[in-house]
Structures are given as structure tokens and as C-alpha cells.
From TrEMBL:
UniProt entry keywords in alphabetical sequence: ATP-binding, Kinase, Nucleotide-binding, Phosphoprotein, Transferase, Two-component regulatory system
Gene3D superfamilies listed in its UniProt record: 1.10.287.130, Histidine kinase-like ATPase, C-terminal domain, PAS domain
EC class name: transferase
Xref: PROSITE patterns: HIS_KIN, PAS
Domain PAS: from-to ranges: 14-52
Sequence ranges assigned to domain Histidine kinase in this UniProt record: 461-677
Entry-linked InterPro entries: HATPase_C_sf, HATPase_dom, His_kinase_dom, HisK_dim/P_dom, HisK_dim/P_sf, PAS, PAS-like_dom_sf, PAS_fold
GO BP terms: regulation of DNA-templated transcription
Its EC number(s): 2.7.13.3
GO molecular function: ATP binding; phosphorelay sensor kinase activity
Lineage: Bacteria, Pseudomonadati, Pseudomonadota, Alphaproteobacteria, Hyphomicrobiales
UniProt protein name: histidine kinase
Catalytic activity as recorded in UniProt: ATP + protein L-histidine = ADP + protein N-phospho-L-histidine
Length: 684
């Protein structure tokens, strides 16, 4: 072909040396130059190609688009072309538009290469990878041939999708026919193992055995999804193995014909039977928890304490060992914990005790507001939460309505699924505290009655005790008057007698004060006391009574302080009552040389006071009923003394016992109290 002068192109010397195809065309698309690489790629020689329209000769798809002025003059495209031998080629091409000084288009230079062989290799590699993955995955995969169901689709082409679905669901026999026509053409090893029991040959038949009647609606919906050209269909469904075992699974069908091919469907099946059972068990557990939580007859609250977990993450190992020091150094942490911990859930009983109508009214309530009147409890609770140990304490809480309630607060701290919460139980103890208060008042009344009774029994001794300082006062007064009557008066002797008089008056005052204190009815006042000193005071009160009854009193006190927490008057009453009972038992049995030993000793945790006598001892029936109320062996006794004594000891957390001596004749009565750590009161 002869070209006009304006179509001639003079290529440079290296034009034919490049391995890439180079084609130069004019603005109309006619070929101006065609190098040797282009001859090898497409099959036409330079003489045959120059002058022809490139896109027409090569059947280019898409054809070249002429660049608009001002657009990008360099671009790339992937083009499908047909060579001289009618072989389809996939071409990667780069185009460069060249312009003159005025911006007019001169020509377009194309450099290109075929990627058909590379794509074919990638396709073969992709197929190999797909097959390898298909068979190696721990999920069941089946490749299905659905070409046999095309007649059914053609038969119902004029119907709507909804009509086809309704028709299939109403015609189970047609669905069964379609299943039989759908064949398994491939199955991976996992599918063979799960559904075929290892029998590969048995797998390559229809899909009917895998679909129980109750699951066939899902099969129909997968067909409908293919008709609607939905690329992927997923459902949770029950399927069956060839041996008839049911499997709960996630069924996914890849329906895109461009991916799996026309007439093919690939399905993936994930066996979630164990997961379903676990989820069912978990849900049953949650339901049991909800039933237990909401139907329990005690108030319960679930409190979110994630803030504590967040604070713990900031603690060093040393700080975790001593969180109390951290809270003392950083008081703002307590405020943060109190306001950031909140009620997540509450039962009806909790709402009722807090004066609310519905449990939901408590949701979001800051936990710290419930303990606003007891910051000490809140601090101990925070420390228990940080340490992760259970907490229980009698305290007061403030309801959202402002009412202050006495409760037993019990808390357990739980970490689950990355979250931290606390389960709080509230027991209303207002009635119990009132009953305890009434009981304490009644016990105090009984103790008072017992003290009055004891004073009555000691009336003669008391009269003697009071009479002694009064007689001494009288004698000192008379002596003082005689010294004043002398001439001159002996003032030194008068002063001496007056000093004795004052001393005896003070002694009488102390005796009367002790009697008044014993007789007085008052609320017990507990303090730290030395049990040895209390025993000494109680025994000194009985000295005259012991001498009158001709019974010796022997004190055996501990050298070290035996500290206890008790009311002084009550504790002296207990010891005095035991000593009086011992002396009376000796007198009633007419024992000569009667002797009562009062001793105080201590172990690591307890302080003990014992009273031993050499009387007749305890008869079996007496020992059995020794501490019963209104039981007495005395003709004029009320039977309250030992019962009240044991009640006092038990109220102090102690125990009381009575038995016969193991080292001789007589009885041994004793009581034990917890030792106190605080120093003794100055009142001791």
C-alpha cells in the first residue's frame, strides 16, 4: 500500500530492537508504523499492516478511544484482540498521544504485550489451588450438577418467583424429583468423612439423602435464590448423613454462574451440632440463672464493676499486695469506684426493699449512692473487690427514696467473658435488730433482777460492810471531841481523828456506790477490761460474806493482763454469782474447811475465769439442767442466776460450762471470753 506523504513515519533505529509490540497510528486510527515484535505477536508483516485501521484489522475490544484535548495523554488498557491465525489474545497496552506546538494530535504510540499465556498459567494454578483448598478445608464442600433441573425451570418460566416457590412448597413430590436430579459431582475429604462415613463412591449420587423432610423448605429457597441470581445463599439447617445421623449445620451455596460455572453449584456445610448443643446448654444455663436470680426470695443486684478491673490494670505488683495503701494515697480512686460501678440488673425483691416499683428502676444506679451514709463500708467493699474475695457485713444503705435501711450486705465478685461484675445480696435485718434490741433489754432486766436478788442474799454482809466505816466515823468523831475538850485543845490529835473520819466516810461512800451500781438498771456499756482485776473486785465485795460463812477465798490471777470486751457490772455479777453459788453449796453440805478458788488464765485466743469449790459437786440431773431458766436446787431460789450468767457470757461471744472436779470432790464452773487486742481501759 502506498501512503501519502503526511502518513509516512520514519521510525528510529531502535524501533525494531524492542521486545514489545510497537504500533504507531494517526489520529484516525490508521497504522503508520508496525515493528517486528508486532509482526510476531499478531502475524501480519509491516507492509501488510501499515495503512490499515488497527482496531478493524485486530478486532480490538474495546476499540481505541481518541483522547480529548486537555486529557491525560498517557494511559493503559487491557484489550482483547484476534491475530491473523484467529487466535484470541489478551493484550496489556500503553498508549501515548503526541501533539504539536499548537496542541493538535499528531499520532498515538502503542506499546503492548500479550498476557494470554500468563493468564492461562494463572488460571491453571488457580484451578489447582482451588482443588487443593477444596479438598483440604476442614469444612464439607460439595460440587453439584443442576443441569437436569432446567426443564422444570423452562416449564415454569412464565410464573413469578413467588408463584414458583409456593408451587414447590405445595408439591413435595416435585421437590423430591428435583433433588434426585441434582447430582454430587465432587466432594472434599471432610464431606466424605462427615456425610459419607468415609465412603467416597456413595457420595456421588443425588442430594436427596442429605435433606430431611423438615429442611426441604431451605432447599427450595436455595433454588429460588439461584433463579433470582443471588450470588450466595446461607441458612442454618438440619441435614442428614448417608447413615441417617442428623447434623445441625450452616449451609452456604455459591450460586454465581460466573464463578462456579453454568449448571454448577458449590455448597459449603459447617457442622455446628456441638456448637448448637453448647449454645442450647448456655441458653438453658442463662434461663436457669434468670429464674434463680428473679425468683429467689432475697433481694439480689448484679453490679458492673469493670472500673475495678480497669484500676487494677494500672496497679504494680507491689500495689496489688497493699491496695489499702494505694487507696489512702489516692482518695480520688474511691470516688471513681463509687460513681462508676452501677446496677446492671435487679430482681423484684431488691426493688421492693429499696422502695421502687420495678427492677428496671434500679438500672444504672451508681452503687456508691447506696452506701453514701457508710463510707467505711464502701471502702472495705472496694478493698474486697480489688482483692477478689467475698464480702459480708451488716451495714446501712440509703435507698433511692432516701430511706436508710439496716441490711446484711453480701457480695461475690465474678469475672466472665472479659467483664467483671458483682452479685450483691441484701437481707433486711431491721426486724432482727429490733428483736435483738428487745432481747437485750429483757436480758438486762433479768440481769438487774438477778443482781437485786443477789444483793438481797448479801443483805447481812452489806449491812456489816456499811456499818464498819460508820462505826469508825462515830469513834473518830467522839475522839476528836474529847481532844477538843482538853485545855488547851490538842489540835494535832483532832486533825488526826478528822483525817481518819474522812477516810472512813470515803470508804462508806465507795461501798454505797458499789451497791448502787449493782442495783442500778442501765444499758450495758462495753469496754476493754482486765479480767483479773474484775475478778479481784468481785471477790473483794464478797469477803465479809465468806468470813461469815466460814469459807476461805483463794485468788489465782494471771500475771499478764487478760483483756476482754465486756460491761464491768455484768462481768462482776457473773463472777460474784458463781462464787456465791459455790459458797452456798459448801454451807448446805456442812463441809468443814470450805474453800473456793477463783482463777483467771488465758490461751492465745481466749481468757478464762473459773470457780472451784470443795462442796458436794453436781448430781447428774443437776449438771444436765444447770443453766436452764427457773431451775434451782435452793428452796427459796428463783433459778435465774446461772441462766442470766450464761446469757451475759454468750452475748459477749463466750461460752460457759459446769462440771465436777476431776482432782477431788466439788464442782468447777467456768466461762471463756474472746481476748481483746486493745489496751485495757483506765477504768480497770
Amino acid at each position: 500500500m502506498t501512503l501519502s506523504p503526511d502518513l509516512r513515519f520514519n521510525p528510529p533505529d531502535v524501533f525494531n530492537l524492542t521486545r514489545e509490540s510497537v504500533v504507531v497510528r494517526d489520529p484516525s486510527g490508521r497504522i503508520l508504523a508496525w515493528n517486528r515484535a508486532a509482526e510476531r505477536l499478531y502475524g501480519w508483516s509491516s507492509e501488510e499492516a501499515v495503512g490499515r485501521v488497527a482496531d478493524d484489522m485486530l478486532w480490538s475490544t474495546p476499540p481505541l478511544t481518541r483522547p480529548a484535548p486537555g486529557s491525560n495523554d498517557v494511559w493503559t488498557e487491557q484489550i482483547v484482540r484476534v491475530g491473523r491465525d484467529r487466535v484470541t489474545l489478551l493484550i496489556d497496552a500503553q498508549f501515548t498521544a503526541r501533539r504539536n506546538a499548537d496542541g493538535a494530535l499528531l499520532d498515538i504510540v502503542e506499546t503492548s504485550r500479550s498476557v494470554s499465556s500468563e493468564r492461562a498459567a494463572l488460571s491453571r494454578e488457580g484451578e489447582h489451588r482451588y482443588r487443593t483448598l477444596f479438598h483440604a478445608m476442614p469444612t464439607s464442600y460439595l460440587e453439584l450438577d443442576i443441569t437436569a433441573i432446567r426443564p422444570f425451570i423452562a416449564q415454569h418460566r412464565d410464573r413469578s418467583i413467588a408463584e414458583i416457590r409456593a408451587h414447590l412448597l405445595a408439591s413435595p413430590e416435585i421437590v423430591q424429583q428435583i433433588m434426585r436430579a441434582t447430582k454430587v459431582v465432587d466432594a472434599n475429604d471432610h464431606a466424605v468423612e462427615v456425610f459419607g462415613g468415609g465412603d467416597r463412591e456413595g457420595m456421588f449420587d443425588s442430594v436427596e439423602p442429605f435433606w430431611p423432610p423438615e429442611s426441604r423448605e431451605v432447599y427450595v429457597d436455595s433454588m429460588i435464590a439461584r433463579l433470582q441470581q443471588v450470588p450466595r445463599f446461607t441458612r442454618e439447617v438440619t441435614m442428614t448423613t448417608l447413615s441417617g445421623c442428623r447434623i445441625h449445620c450452616i449451609f452456604t451455596a455459591c450460586l454465581d454462574a460466573k464463578i462456579v460455572g453454568d449448571g454448577r453449584v458449590i455448597i459449603g456445610i459447617v457442622d455446628v451440632t456441638a456448637l448448637t448443643v453448647a449454645n442450647r446448654t448456655l441458653e438453658e444455663g442463662r434461663e436457669r440463672y434468670r429464674a434463680l436470680f428473679h425468683l429467689m426470695p432475697i433481694p439480689l443486684c448484679r453490679i458492673n464493676t469493670d472500673v475495678v478491673a480497669a484500676i487494677l490494670k494500672t496497679f504494680s505488683r507491689a500495689q496489688r499486695q497493699d491496695p489499702e495503701a494505694v487507696l489512702s494515697a489516692r482518695p480520688e480512686l474511691m470516688h471513681h469506684i463509687a460513681n462508676s460501678s452501677f446496677v446492671e440488673e435487679a430482681n423484684v425483691r431488691a426493688a421492693k426493699i429499696l422502695g421502687l416499683e420495678a427492677p428496671d428502676d434500679l438500672r444504672g444506679l451508681p452503687a456508691g449512692s447506696l452506701l453514701s451514709s457508710r463510707p467505711d463500708t464502701l471502702r472495705r467493699l472496694a478493698l474486697a473487690s480489688i482483692r477478689g474475695v467475698p464480702f459480708e457485713e451488716e451495714t446501712q444503705i440509703v435507698s433511692p427514696t432516701g430511706e436508710e435501711l439496716d441490711v446484711l450486705l453480701s457480695m461475690s465478685f465474678i469475672e466472665h467473658a472479659g467483664s467483671r461484675f458483682s452479685l450483691a445480696g441484701l437481707i433486711d435485718i431491721r426486724d432482727r435488730l429490733k428483736a435483738e434490741g428487745d432481747l437485750a433489754t429483757l436480758r438486762a432486766d433479768f440481769a438487774h433482777a438477778a443482781r437485786i436478788s443477789m444483793l438481797g442474799e448479801l443483805a447481812a454482809s452489806i449491812a456489816h460492810e456499811v456499818n464498819q466505816p460508820l462505826a469508825a466515823i462515830g469513834a473518830s468523831g467522839e475522839a476528836g471531841l474529847r481532844w477538843l475538850d482538853r485545855s488547851p485543845p490538842n489540835l494535832d490529835q483532832v486533825r488526826t481523828q478528822l483525817t481518819r473520819l474522812v477516810g472512813q466516810a470515803e470508804r462508806a461512800s465507795r461501798i454505797i456506790e458499789r451497791i448502787r451500781t449493782t442495783a442500778k438498771s442501765s444499758i450495758p456499756e462495753r469496754q476493754t477490761l482486765d479480767l483479773s482485776k474484775v475478778a479481784q473486785n468481785a471477790v473483794s465485795f464478797l469477803d465479809h460474806e465468806a468470813r461469815a460463812l466460814r469459807v476461805s477465798l483463794d485468788l489465782r490471777l494471771s500475771v499478764d493482763p487478760c483483756l476482754v470486751v465486756a460491761d464491768r457490772t455484768e462481768l462482776e455479777q457473773v463472777i460474784a454469782n458463781l462464787v456465791i453459788n459455790a459458797m452456798q453449796a459448801i454451807v448446805s453440805s456442812e463441809v468443814r474447811n470450805g474453800r473456793v478458788v477463783v482463777g483467771v488464765g488465758a490461751t492465745e485466743h481466749c481468757a478464762e475465769c473459773y470457780v472451784i469449790d470443795n462442796g458436794p459437786g453436781l448430781e447428774p440431773h443437776v449438771q444436765k439442767r444447770l443453766f436452764e431458766s427457773f431451775f434451782t436446787t435452793k428452796r427459796e431460789g428463783m433459778g435465774l442466776g446461772l441462766s442470766v450468767c450464761r446469757s451475759i457470757v454468750q452475748s459477749l461471744g463466750g461460752t460457759m460450762a459446769g462440771e465436777n472436779r476431776s482432782d477431788g470432790v466439788g464442782a468447777r464452773l467456768s466461762f471463756r471470753l474472746p481476748r481483746a487486742k486493745a489496751p485495757p481501759s483506765t477504768a480497770c
